[in-house]
Amino acid sequence: MAANTTTLKGQPLDRPALDALLRRRMFYTPGFEIYGGSAGLFDMGPPGVTLQDNIISLWKKHFINEEAMLEVDTTVLTPYDVLKASGHCDKFTDWMCKDPKNGELLRADHWVKDTLKARLNANKLARGETVTEEEDPKKKKKAGKVAAQKLSDDVVKEYEGILARLDNYTGAELGELIVKHDMKNPATGVIPGEPKQFNLMFQTQIGPNSANVGFLRPETAQGQFLNFSKLLEFNNNSMPFASACVGRSYRNEISPRGGLLRVREFLMAEIEHFVDPESGKKHARFAEVADTELVLLDRHTQQDGKTDVRKVKIGEAVSSGLVNNETLGYYLVRINKFMEKIGVDMSKLRFRQHMANEMAHYAADCWDCELLTSSGWVECVGCADRAAYDLEAHAKRTGSPLTVRERLETPIEEEKWEVEPNRKVFGPLFKKDAKTVENHLISLSQEELAALSKQLAEEKKIIITVPGLADASTIGAEALKIELKKNTIHTREYFPHVIEPSFGIGRIMYSLIEHSYWTRAADDGGDEARGVLSFPPIVAPTKVLVVPLSNNPDFKPLTDKICRKLTSQGIWVRTDISGATIGKRYSRNDELGTPLGITIDFQSTSDNTVTLRDRDSMTQVRGDEDAIIDAVRSLVTGQKTWADIEKELPKFDGQKA
Amino acid sequence: MAANTTTLKGQPLDRPALDALLRRRMFYTPGFEIYGGSAGLFDMGPPGVTLQDNIISLWKKHFINEEAMLEVDTTVLTPYDVLKASGHCDKFTDWMCKDPKNGELLRADHWVKDTLKARLNANKLARGETVTEEEDPKKKKKAGKVAAQKLSDDVVKEYEGILARLDNYTGAELGELIVKHDMKNPATGVIPGEPKQFNLMFQTQIGPNSANVGFLRPETAQGQFLNFSKLLEFNNNSMPFASACVGRSYRNEISPRGGLLRVREFLMAEIEHFVDPESGKKHARFAEVADTELVLLDRHTQQDGKTDVRKVKIGEAVSSGLVNNETLGYYLVRINKFMEKIGVDMSKLRFRQHMANEMAHYAADCWDCELLTSSGWVECVGCADRAAYDLEAHAKRTGSPLTVRERLETPIEEEKWEVEPNRKVFGPLFKKDAKTVENHLISLSQEELAALSKQLAEEKKIIITVPGLADASTIGAEALKIELKKNTIHTREYFPHVIEPSFGIGRIMYSLIEHSYWTRAADDGGDEARGVLSFPPIVAPTKVLVVPLSNNPDFKPLTDKICRKLTSQGIWVRTDISGATIGKRYSRNDELGTPLGITIDFQSTSDNTVTLRDRDSMTQVRGDEDAIIDAVRSLVTGQKTWADIEKELPKFDGQKA
């Protein structure tokens, strides 16, 4: 579990101070606040939106452009049938307990976690140990209000074991834990009821007919799978390839909290990389990354209730079987590189492997990229091997062949049971259901077809149950033939497997903000420590602040001119002509994470020189308008560093208000 | 009404050929097609997404950056109370008729439009006149199946008048028109039933409690209004300012059709420009644009049933009162400029003023930017003056002052009736409703408060009806004082008015595609005419196609090197290493709208020179790797034109497959 987190400069992180800064500068704000708020919904203000845009833009360049992926933009609204087939209607659920006394709805795994953490915390207090911020009971509204109370060492060990395996329990097991460990609701004094499944999808009605049930998508993945055949064709029928989609997804959380870390509406960026399963899931560019070291927390370490990480070269991790295949390994490296580019503190990053029960039954392997924040390790990217599960499910439901057909170099002779309906009889027999019945027959295994063929020959009819139809279907020999046919196979047909890196943009953004934050002692001893967000220029919401020394109208022409020149070069610039002191304005700007500041003073109006300030060092240089604009461009595009600029332009120590 | 539309080169537009191209190249595709589709939902494929991204990116630069707007990103999920206050729960509806025989649901205004157009068309056929594509009955599935039949001149005039005023009718009026003109449903032979209101919002439930009704937002505007006070503070309490939001909105259309032009889920880009109503809605930069000429179709012309446009300088349009104010006029010019930048055919653009009944009752003026397509004139941007309607509605409902407070230079003495509850009595009297009752009292007019004060003095109690509470509220004199107080007013407090330019990105994108489309005769006489999409480089989905002459492995190193160099400069590049002929690959690329192509041939492997091809002229130049990369960069950024490049680099007539 997380120790006390620190700022970029190693200071203890003062979370309330950071929260106040984010609110003051409108990075994000609770949605519908004047209406009393709506849990799990947040709006982003100006710096937040642009920070997000810059992260997305870099993401698209890093993944879609550099890896030649096929981007799609699919709809959020999704008809029932699609999510029934994908399993979400039945399985996209959380376990929810109802308090029998006050009717309060509680998420079962969170209830267990909060209760046990509060008890461990109370134990620490009782033993006079330090309580980490994450475990601070004041921050837990419900389960947390426990006074100092000692626990035996065995109990502590048991609780810690439960917490380490928390994602691993079924609903029934969570219910048993709640009863066994007497996890009463302090608000009512009773134990919450048995966990029940709550579907996390938002449901709605598409069109004026109430029978057309739809949902808001829980992930962008399904929209990509449904377009698989079109994308394959777009890619000139060439494999492997990856599609990608950036868009909102929805999750009707039972009781969201934790700011941007657990919300009901969120931005995802997902990649679906389609590979031939018989290729060993090799990746053409794996050799380029094989020597890259990643920080890994493997499944076995966690099963032992531990969280020790180790640095491993991805080439070794794949060849030892720790990471299942090259494609998965390649993406872990690309994810790592992306995090580095946007400015994540790489000492606060690890890849955690999913434990066996955490993964879907069909998944071969799954690794989460986690970032350390004041809320502990946060899952920011999931990178899973989904096998062929989704494509097969949709193909089965629709009869569309979501497969790859490849010409075989040597044709194969094959005998195969084939279904051949007699259209004239079969059609009228089943009317609108004819296609459903036929698709079902086609989907049967060779063994099943052989048995049916025998039955058809002996009894002159078969009786089958077709999913989706209420009654059993009786088919006579006059309507259907099932025969063993000899074919020469010229093509191989297969369902590709899918490697899926899935990014939660809001979580990445929040973690990045924490990693970029630090405070600077007030220079005159008067003010409080000042917050700084040291975003790299590439993601910083605004690149340059242009500040006239005062709102003297003489400063306006040069201010406007510099702004227009920068803007015309595509550089995001803002002016601050408020009456505040230069110091206050720079301080406001440091909080917004703007890396550079240009000041226009009285000297500027006579000799056209201005000063350029570096956010992180607070040092300034002076130069004429064009020299400074050149310096800005080279800093913003990453061609030069501040140290380079300091060598080229004279240092300036003048005006400081 | 639209004449036959033409391509960029003046050829008659073959819409089915264009549709086939867009489908083949996966610009967009019907959503959920393998599940039988879901009307009004479309997915975008690779070129569509990037075209959309480029339009949005230019939009943000043109509006948000150049005009220093405050961007927000708010949630789609919106609680019931917000949309009740904004009027959407009651008024965001279409009129829907039900066919009494087969239960079919029809949108009333569309029913009137389609039926009358079909009749006018049948009349033209009967008179041997040409039928424009838009009116082609084969394209209208339901109401359109009418044989040639003559109408009298009076009837033609009446029908044309109804069509010109179509947006102007109430539901009852539409019902009367349907009965009066005997608009039977050809499918059943009966007249559809009386129009009923159908709410167009998608409804859902937020959280596990079914009492928490929410909707998918119908516009991004409300999210901006709710953040008004925070944005004003972010803007250092300085007025005027504009906020902006790009995001999806939803409209549960009764029976969507028309491809991207009428969909249930769509991308909007909306600006809310907040101004002091007492400022005359002046705009600081209006003088810069006053001489710009716009193509206007005013309200009076339409009231006369006509559609004649005229070119007017915006300065004159505002001073004559045709356009209500400078801010509105300024935005019309900026919209015009934006359309020009992205490559819209400016001869197919007009600004149409809303007629009186088309506008909301509180709106001062409204103009739509319309683009001419094969579906007629399409509303792509609405630019309305919403007055203070929304801010007042939310302030009234929540008690939050969504106002601007300005320090007065000269204080004003004022007498005012004020409400003063006696907390100790008032609170217990109304319990949880106390705030609601108090807010209601505060919202009353001075006249109403004077009357209540008198009543309170005489009867020692008042009985009032508070919206939202079931029973009338009785308040005794012991719980409440209403007194005339003398105040010195140091600040002025006002609700700003809102000018709202609102962009439908999908409609703009579709219109732009039509405006950019043309066909080129096959050069060898064998193939069909080849489609070209002449997007300007700034919006083109891919800037450069890199094509090795064949898949000979000798070409690979240089192909990869050039791609990486271009990519590292942020230039969107693709390769095509399929086995197709160079001609086929260029043709595929012209359909994707890629402006430039680089070809690597045998000569390249010996002397490092490659050729560069211009999509529109099909001419080629040759140069070494770096010269060609420089040329690409200067063309893509708009610094040079193809004519410039042709002067600098030698023409190439060599390989042509």
TrEMBL record, chains A, B:
It catalyses: 2 ATP + H(+) = P(1),P(4)-bis(5'-adenosyl) tetraphosphate + diphosphate. One of its GO terms (cellular component) is mitochondrion. GO terms for biological process: mitochondrial glycyl-tRNA aminoacylation. Keywords: Aminoacyl-tRNA synthetase, ATP-binding, Cytoplasm, Ligase, Nucleotide-binding, Protein biosynthesis, Transferase. Its EC number is 6.1.1.14. It comes from the Eukaryota. GO terms for molecular function: ATP binding; glycine-tRNA ligase activity; transferase activity. Gene3D superfamilies: 3.30.40.230, 3.30.720.200, Anticodon-binding domain (3.40.50.800), Bira Bifunctional Protein, Domain 2 (3.30.930.10). It is found in: Cytoplasm. Homodimer. PANTHER family: GLYCINE--TRNA LIGASE (PTHR10745:SF0), GLYCYL-TRNA SYNTHETASE/DNA POLYMERASE SUBUNIT GAMMA-2 (PTHR10745). This is glycine--tRNA ligase.
